Amino acid sequence: MARPFVQYRRELKGRARALRRDPTPAERKLWFDFLRTHRLKFTRQKPLRRYVADFYCAQRKVVIEVDGDTHYTCRGEHYDAVRTGALAEEGIHVLRFTNIEVMQQFEAVCQRIEELLSFIPDP
After folding, report:
1. Tens-digit pLDDT profile for residues 72-93
2. Which of 63, 78, 103, 105 has the greatest number of beta carbons closer than 10 A?
């Protein structure tokens, strides 16, 4: 089965590599304790269109974002809404968690991810 390809800006590759080398503690926990060995393949810091997604599952077209404080300002919320809309145009579902949720409610975060993945068929 061919996976759908989402265009991206080439200049984002270096930024994505840098983000993979220096994840936040919450991103590190979600990756190493759950997504890295998930039955569906996830990639970290994946360039999609003009954005870099924290985690991406191409098989289900799902992005998982782990957000820090800067995302909860007026400017940050507007940017995230525009970004989510742009990804939705590609048929990509976006699921967001705060750093605190990942660190303090890890099992619930994993459960919500599993629930979303179970409702989305392969494209």
Report:
1. 667 878 888 999 999 999 999 9
2. 63
